[in-house]
Specification:
The structure holds two protein chains of two kinds. Chain A is mainly α. Chain A contains twelve helices and no strands. Chain A starts with 5 loop residues before the first helix and ends with a helix. Chain B has a two-stranded antiparallel sheet with strand order 1-2. The two termini of chain B are 48 Å apart. Classes of the chains: A mainly alpha, B mainly alpha.
Chain lengths: 279, 433
């Protein structure tokens, strides 16, 4: 091995310097929320980067002064239900569209693709009116249906692309060995498509934690609020006097989501890039 | 010669099921007839009301008689009923055609003296042929009511005058106005400036946001992938962190970090003697902050993606280049870059479309501010989508919002179709299998 020349040393030093800069840039905002949630003060102004004392008061306040536990349960319930519904509908639909040939298939596929290109806002007024008509306004069921229904078109394309990529010979070989349609589906196709299903499941589970617009539109009663609405209201006031409590609430949401993403990152990125490049 | 096919078909055209009865398929005939009877008895009054409603959008406005409110027609509900009525008519029409086709086919079999299937046989056949349709029906039903009907409604609203202050039901009626809304958008003073101004910034924003995240992701992926960098896994884990943190929360945190009055950044700046910067008060700074936050949020995704692509590039390509005496920059430009572009170009275009409609970032970071006084209901950093949000939820300008939505749709659809044709998988999907 050659000894690195001075030029190479300088370049290497510069690269490490760059990496450290980006690291600081990445971690500082995250550190700021974490430290804010343990800060003794309440407002944004009194939040210190290096406080003398730390407190868990804001975490307790979330549960004692706010309905944080209720919001959390509401969101968890909505997220789980819409995830299950989305995954079932998307798998059935995309499997059918990928593996069967029937009249109207291409038209249906194009139609779904076109659907995904409209801005979601456009459907807001009509969704509101429809939910009002069937009595689902201000109910969690209404919101779950809106989330899962809105997910179908986009995700179906993604998953269909993945199913298309599985060579025909695999299910055919299984059929020769005497496996039925159902066995082929559950024992072969589902395990192979695990990354993309994970991606759909996680994305549709995360959606309700993040969505503000449709939650705001459908839910009216304070006790039915989801986390996104509750948290947003804490920091958009003029004085930001509840900033530290927002930080604590945000940590409690972000922590499980971040852990979920980091532990599944391989599948998520694989699923997204493979499914998307198929489109 | 007797023509059973024509006669059966004609009978089925007259009334559903008659042709089947003529073909002596009693159960099938009764079923088809039942469908038509149900439609006429239960659905026809609603369909007629809905079609009348969507055609006229109501005729009697709300009125005051002797100090009491007399409810008139509610144009917007009438429009929704109308769309549902059209959907019902469409489904019925498809069934009607199937009924005639079936009568014709069975008649043809009889002309050729072939014994047609009995009811159980045809049921089994329908089960096999209709299996995909059965599997698709739940999703189709959902999509119909959550996506299709609302979108059709949205498209239709763009061609009405549904807007405050003069055309908000139930007090006032709404009317069809054709392309008036679009013409207003392009010619009406105030709206014209806003539309073109916001549109321009949306394009600039989408290009810069996509390019910045894409290339910083690429550069750092190359750095982390190059030889001699220690702790690769450590750096990668840290850099990927912003992708895993919920975007909505990060954006709200940045909103506070850049808060001009109370935020930590300005506090720190003033402590080292620099004057406070109006991050969100000044249009130029606000735009820079938007791009910076987007870079922070978006680059990890591309970093992760490209790390995967880079590890897939065969080593011997580089070795061959080294033998030929290529320097690192040449290797990057001639090998790495083209291969990465080839693998990620569709995602680059999708990312552009995503940024074009990146409502969350613009809205939660600064609500599109600062306000632009020469714009109508929009701020300096507003993109088309966040302007639509304001038009809809804050100003009740529904027709304008829907017209802008249609324009966005046309743009996104053009980009996607272009993207679609380039990635040839749609054409060749049957060849892959």
């Amino acid at each position: 091995m050659k000894k690195p020349t001075l030029k190479q040393k300088v370049i290497r030093g510069f690269i490490y310097f760059l990496l450290i800069c980006i690291t600081i840039n990445t971690l500082l905002p995250l550190y700021f929320v974490v430290i804010a949630s343990f800060n003794p003060g309440n407002s944004l102004f009194s939040t210190k980067m290096f406080p003398e004392t730390l407190t868990t008061k804001h975490y307790r306040d979330l549960f004692e002064k706010k309905d944080y536990a209720i919001w959390y349960m509401n969101t968890l319930k909505i997220a789980l239900c819409s995830m299950v519904l989305t995954v079932i509908l998307v798998i059935i639909t995309s499997y059918t569209l990928s593996q069967f040939r029937f009249r109207g298939r291409k038209t249906g596929l194009m139609f779904m693709l076109v659907m995904t290109m409209f801005p979601g806002f456009m459907s807001m007024i009509a969704i509101y009116l429809l939910l009002l008509q069937v009595g689902l306004l201000d109910t969690h069921l209404g919101l779950i249906l809106v989330y899962s229904g809105g997910n179908i078109a986009g995700f179906t394309w993604l998953v269909k692309g993945y199913f298309d990529g599985i060579p025909r010979s695999i299910p055919e070989a299984a059929k020769i060995d005497g496996a039925g349609n159902a066995t082929v589906f559950t024992r072969i196709m589902l395990p192979i498509s695990f990354p993309i299903i994970t991606f759909v499941a996680v994305s549709s589970f995360i959606g309700p934690w993040m969505d503000y617009i449709f939650a705001r539109l459908v839910l009216r009663t304070p006790s039915k609020k989801t986390l996104a609405i509750g948290l947003f209201e804490m920091v958009t006031g003029r004085q930001n006097t509840e900033f530290t409590m927002f930080a604590a609430g945000a940590i409690l949401v972000a922590l499980p989501v971040t852990i979920l993403y980091m532990s599944l990152q391989k599948y998520l990125i694989q699923g997204l890039s493979e499914g998307a490049s198929k489109i | 010669m007797k023509s059973n096919s024509k006669r059966a078909c004609l009978l089925s055209v007259i009334f559903m099921g008659l042709g089947q009865l003529y073909n002596r398929q009693i159960i099938k005939g009764i079923l088809f007839a039942a469908i038509e009877i149900v439609f006429i008895v239960y659905l026809l009054p609603f369909v007629r009301y809905g079609l009348w409603g969507i055609y006229t959008l109501g005729e009697t406005p709300q009125a005051f008689v002797d100090g009491k409110v007399v409810q008139g027609d509610h144009s917007i509900f009438l429009m929704v009923y109308g769309i549902i009525a059209i959907v019902l008519v469409f489904i019925f029409g498809v069934l009607y055609c199937l009924n005639c086709q079936d009568a014709y086919k069975v008649g043809k079999l009889r002309d050729n003296h072939v014994q047609p299937n009995n009811f159980l046989q045809s049921l089994k056949l329908a089960g096999e042929k209709g299996f995909p349709y059965l599997m698709l029906s739940p999703a189709a039903f959902f999509t119909l009511f959550i996506t299709v009907v609302p979108l059709v409604f949205g498209v239709l609203v763009a061609f009405t005058n549904y807007s405050s202050p003069n055309h908000i039901p139930p007090r006032k009626l709404v009317d069809w106005v054709g392309f008036r809304t679009f013409i207003d958008l392009f010619t009406l003073s105030g709206y014209k400036e806003t539309f073109f101004g916001v549109f321009g910034w949306t394009v600039i924003w989408a290009v810069l946001a996509t390019v910045s995240t894409f290339f910083s992701g690429l550069i750092f992926a190359v750095i982390l992938n190059s030889n001699g960098i220690k702790l690769k896994k450590f750096w990668r884990t840290i850099f990927i962190l912003p992708w895993a943190v919920p975007g909505y929360i990060s954006i709200l945190v940045f909103r506070n970090i850049f808060n001009a009055q109370f935020g930590p950044l300005n506090k720190w700046l003033s402590s080292i003697g620099i004057e406070k910067i109006q991050w969100f008060g000044d249009p130029a700074w606000a735009k820079i902050v938007c791009l910076f936050v987007n870079l922070w949020l978006g680059f990890p995704y591309f970093l992760a993606l490209m790390s995967g692509v880079l590890t897939g590039i065969p080593r011997d390509l580089y070795e061959a280049a080294e033998v030929e005496g290529a320097n690192p920059i040449q290797k990057f430009l001639k090998i790495t870059f083209p291969l990465v572009m080839f693998a990620t170009a569709p995602l680059l275009i999708m990312s552009f479309a995503h940024n074009f409609n990146n409502f969350n970032l613009i809205h939660f970071l600064n609500s599109g501010g600062p306000v632009n006084t020469s714009y109508k209901y929009a701020g300096h950093t507003d993109i088309l989508l966040s302007w639509i949000y304001k038009l809809t939820l804050e100003q009740n300008q529904f027709n304008k919002a829907c017209a802008v939505s249609i324009i966005i749709f046309i743009i996104i659809a053009t980009i996607s179709i272009f993207n679609f044709r380039r990635t040839r998988s749609f054409k060749e999907e049957d060849m892959i299998q």
